């Protein structure tokens, strides 16, 4: 049977070992002769599981003790609204640094709840997408928080340096780069990410927030489902959580710890990205329009320059077991999402097909 590699931007491919373990435990979890989906989320077995998941994530990501970890619902989009509700303070104003589709949507949603300024990080007048300067220490004190997106899934732009915002709270939407490499979490007031790319399945959202930012009370006007203080005080369980998704995230954390943690993950991710970008740079058939220093290691975008040929590429790739390579409708072209669970062999198979397709369709 032909190997199949899923390059979807999310829901994305998951570690095969994790899926196999979930399959084995599906009907008899923890020797309870029932599925994890059927037990009480407040029962002893489930509570022990979520405690272990949190501890494994803390160990894997080196989360400091003064940060709370929340497992919420509503996706990253839900946090677009929750962030201004929770983090606006004495200034009653926020700064949004935009670098693509998702950071702009975050700003658009936040405007429903907050007064904000927006700065486009992408330098204008160039053939390639490139991020400009990241030092905002001279203006950041005017704002309660500064928000940005380190990895834009659609365009394949990644920001590797952390913006300098002085002592102002820095918030990052890390949905597409969470756990892909080690970061200094102490530089952030809050990190959030939808699970469906590097953490687990869709339906659950990770929030890592510094404890001193949990200043709202349960009597505030923030709806309880979006209130970080309420959620933290109730272990992310003010309502029934997505139990199966939480369980799978726990298996993912356990799996990556066993594989060597983030140092090993980072090496593998760099190797995969280097292989694909090297081929693109050497090709006169495909094109990538992101500056080298801002090329995403998670989402590699490319095109032939011909929209009809791009459609042909996607269709033929699928016939060869290379799935979900169609670019986002906003961007067009192709996109290969090579998250943690994508093996190197998948990228090798993609490059091999790309060479075959180019040789077959060159004029």
From TrEMBL:
Residues found modified as N6-(pyridoxal phosphate)lysine: 197
Transmembrane segments: 338-358
Membership in a protein family: Belongs to the class-V pyridoxal-phosphate-dependent aminotransferase family. SerC subfamily.
Protein name: Phosphoserine aminotransferase
InterPro entries: Aminotrans_V_dom, Aminotrans_V_PyrdxlP_BS, Pser_aminoTfrase, PyrdxlP-dep_Trfase, PyrdxlP-dep_Trfase_major, PyrdxlP-dep_Trfase_small
Assembly and binders: Homodimer.
GO terms (BP aspect): L-serine biosynthetic process; pyridoxine biosynthetic process
Binding positions for pyridoxal 5'-phosphate per the UniProt entry: 76-77, 102, 153, 173, 196, 239-240
PANTHER family: PHOSPHOSERINE AMINOTRANSFERASE
Function statement: Catalyzes the reversible conversion of 3-phosphohydroxypyruvate to phosphoserine and of 3-hydroxy-2-oxo-4-phosphonooxybutanoate to phosphohydroxythreonine.
Name of the encoding gene: serC
Keywords of the record: Amino-acid biosynthesis, Aminotransferase, Cytoplasm, Membrane, Pyridoxal phosphate, Pyridoxine biosynthesis, Serine biosynthesis, Transferase, Transmembrane, Transmembrane helix
Catalytic activity: 4-(phosphooxy)-L-threonine + 2-oxoglutarate = (R)-3-hydroxy-2-oxo-4-phosphooxybutanoate + L-glutamate; O-phospho-L-serine + 2-oxoglutarate = 3-phosphooxypyruvate + L-glutamate
Subcellular location: Cytoplasm
Presence of the UniProt keyword Secreted in the record: no
SUPFAM superfamilies listed in its UniProt record: PLP-dependent transferases (SSF53383)
Gene Ontology cellular-component annotations: cytoplasm
Cofactor note: Binds 1 pyridoxal phosphate per subunit.
GO-annotated molecular function: O-phospho-L-serine:2-oxoglutarate aminotransferase activity; pyridoxal phosphate binding
Pathway(s) served: Cofactor biosynthesis; pyridoxine 5'-phosphate biosynthesis; pyridoxine 5'-phosphate from D-erythrose 4-phosphate: step 3/5; Amino-acid biosynthesis; L-serine biosynthesis; L-serine from 3-phospho-D-glycerate: step 2/3
EC number, as in UniProt: 2.6.1.52
HAMAP family: SerC_aminotrans_5
A Pfam short name: Aminotran_5
């Amino acid at each position: 049977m032909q190997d199949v590699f899923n390059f979807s931007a999310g829901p994305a491919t998951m570690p095969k070992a994790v899926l196999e373990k979930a399959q084995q435990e599906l009907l008899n979890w923890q020797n309870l002769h029932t599925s994890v989906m059927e037990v009480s989320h407040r029962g002893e077995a489930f509570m022990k599981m979520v405690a272990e998941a949190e501890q494994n994530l803390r160990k894997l990501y080196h989360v400091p003790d003064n940060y709370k970890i929340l497992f919420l619902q509503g996706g990253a989009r839900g946090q677009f609204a929750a962030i201004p509700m929770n983090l606006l303070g004495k200034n009653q104003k926020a700064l949004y640094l935009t670098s693509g589709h998702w950071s702009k949507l975050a700003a658009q949603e936040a405007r429903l709840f907050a007064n904000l300024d927006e700065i486009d990080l992408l330098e204008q007048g160039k053939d390639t997408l490139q991020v400009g300067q990241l030092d905002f220490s001279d203006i950041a004190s005017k704002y309660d928080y500064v928000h940005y997106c380190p990895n834009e899934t659609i365009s394949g732009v990644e920001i590797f340096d952390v913006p300098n915002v002085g002592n102002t709270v820095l918030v990052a939407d890390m949905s597409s780069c969470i756990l892909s490499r080690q970061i200094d979490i102490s530089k952030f007031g809050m990190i959030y990410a939808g699970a469906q790319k590097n953490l687990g399945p869709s339906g659950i959202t990770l929030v890592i927030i510094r404890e001193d930012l949990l200043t709202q009370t349960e009597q505030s006007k923030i709806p309880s489902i979006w209130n970080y203080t309420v959620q933290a005080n109730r272990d992310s369980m003010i309502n029934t959580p997505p139990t199966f998704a939480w369980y799978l995230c726990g298996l993912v954390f356990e799996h990556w710890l066993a594989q060597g943690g983030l140092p090993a993950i980072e090496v593998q991710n760099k190797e995969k990205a280097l292989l694909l970008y090297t081929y693109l740079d050497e090709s006169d058939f495909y094109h990538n329009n992101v500056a080298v220093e801002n090329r995403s290691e998670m989402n590699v975008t490319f095109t032939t320059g011909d929209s009809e040929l791009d459609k042909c590429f996607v269709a033929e790739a699928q016939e060869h077991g290379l799935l979900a390579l169609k670019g986002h409708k906003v961007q067009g072209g192709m996109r290969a999402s090579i998250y943690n669970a994508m093996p190197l062999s998948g990228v090798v198979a993609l490059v091999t097909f790309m060479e075959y397709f180019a040789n077959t369709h060159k004029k």
